[in-house]
Amino acid sequence: QVQLVESGGGLVQAGGSLRLSCTASGFAFSLYVMNWYRQAPGKERELVAAISSGSITYYADSMKGRFTISRDNGKYTVTLQMNSLKPEDTAVYYCNARRPVGGNEYWGQGTQVTVSS
Q: Rounded to whole angstroms, how far apart are CA atoms 51 and 89?
């Protein structure tokens, strides 16, 4: 059974930090690109950061320099370190796994991040 379980969300003041974790099971984790998406109320889901199986990273422009994505293929985990958080970072954050070949894709249930001003 495929599972992506996020943890680490919560309430933080502006300027603070949070570390999100996603633990995967049920699929060949090392073959998948791992992504973090977020969705704020009334807005479309957007890509925050991505990391390839070889740990090549991508960040959306507004996250560059503040967020860091990493993965541990041995532990089937992907993390998102979020620093210098802003109220506009408030959203539900989702872990996503996408296989480049074959197109399999999986989603976690999401974790709420709330940044107060």
A: 20
